[in-house]
């Protein structure tokens, strides 16, 4: 039984490590496209007191820095922009890859983090961010 448990833990750890490696490779591949947005990301991050790397990571993860988008839309045309804002947004600000749109997505992120922080004040920052 210990051998089975060990195998499960080992496979889970390998899966986690492989996932992190894949995310790292994806982010590195997106770096060239992300450079185009470096200045707007930094301005938005400074204004909202966010780490610019967090905004860049979300842009990379959500849209591959625009690579996966068709005129700003995902394949199903349900989400829009670099940070993939859903259609439920009352109003979309700016062109899909504009600073205004990055600001809107980042503002939504701050609001969501603050909601989690209010509901779980004893959690660490990492837990709240996840």
From TrEMBL:
UniProt keyword terms in alphabetical order: Antimicrobial, Bacteriolytic enzyme, Disulfide bond, Glycosidase, Hydrolase, Secreted
Reaction(s) catalysed by this chain, per the record, are: Hydrolysis of (1->4)-beta-linkages between N-acetylmuramic acid and N-acetyl-D-glucosamine residues in a peptidoglycan and between N-acetyl-D-glucosamine residues in chitodextrins
Mind telling me which GO cellular component terms the entry cites?
Answer: extracellular region
Q: Which domain of life is it from?
A: Eukaryota
Cell compartment(s), UniProt: Secreted
Q: Does the keyword Membrane apply?
A: no
InterPro entries assigned to the protein according to its UniProt record, in alphabetical order: Glyco_hydro_23, Lysozyme-like_dom_sf
**MF terms in GO:** lysozyme activity
Which family, according to UniProt? Belongs to the glycosyl hydrolase 23 family.
What is the protein name for this chain? Answer: Lysozyme g
- The source organism is Columbina picui
